[in-house]
Amino acid sequence: MIAALAPNPATRGFTSHSGSCTVHCNGAQMRAHCRDQVTIVKVAGDIDVLNIDRFYDYTRRFVGEAPGLILDLSEVDFLCASSISVLIKLDNDCRTAGTQWAIVGSLTVRRLLHIGDPSDALPTASSERQALNTVFAQRQASLATS
After folding, report:
1. Residues 46, 54 contacting (CB under 8 angstroms)
2. pLDDT of the residue at 105
3. Which residues pair with 78 in a beta bridge?
4. What pLDDT digit, counting tens, does each position of 56-113 carry?
5. Are 37 and 67 in contact (CB under 8 A)?
6. How far apart are CA 83 and CA 52, in angstroms?
7. In angstroms, rounded to a whole number, what is the distance separating the alpha carbons of residues 68 and 122?
8. Per CATH, is 2-145 categorized as 3.30.750.24?
9. Domain range summary for the chain, segments of one domain joined by +
């Protein structure tokens, strides 16, 4: 089942067009929906110093809302270097909340992750389907160890 999640109107600094669940934020478009108990946050455009904090705030609000989170950056054209620390912060947020998660990246994102995360600590996937499988596998492993 796929259901749209409407943007939180109380979140400051975001604008959305009437009737749309897409949030427009200084060159990035962000949208969230649920699928199989996993929140999928899709981002397109550029993530830079003008919107990195808003990108984090938008994504962070879905941590803990569902057992899984997929951050789909496959349509991101530019990702600033400081995004690595933001993604590591999201990783820590997910671990603390018990949310299993994965990142789907465009070529640009994968290149930056290769440089900024050489130990592959961040959970990545090549497609949304693979990310769903990764999140489900993480959940099964977590349940098996509890």
Report:
1. no
2. 94
3. 46
4. 999 999 999 999 999 999 999 999 999 999 999 999 999 999 999 999 999 999 999 9
5. yes
6. 7
7. 15
8. yes
9. 2-145
* Residue positions counted in the chain: 146
Amino acid in the structure at residue 47: I
Q: Residue 22 and residue 15: Cα distance in Å, rounded?
A: 9
DSSP state of 129: H
Separation between Cα atoms, residue 38 and residue 133, nearest integer Å: 11
Return the amino acid letter for 88.
I
* Strand partners for 4: 33
Neighbours of 85 (CB within 10 A): 12
> CA-to-CA distance for 131 and 57, rounded, in angstroms?
22
| DSSP H or E stretch at residue 73 | strand 68-79
Read off the DSSP letter of residue 1. Answer: -
Crossing angle (nearest 10°) for helices 83-97 and 52-60: 10
Q: Which residues pair with 23 in a beta bridge?
A: 16, 30
DSSP H helical segments within 11-122, as ranges? 52-60, 83-97, 107-116
Q: Which two tokens stand for residue 22?
A: 């897409």
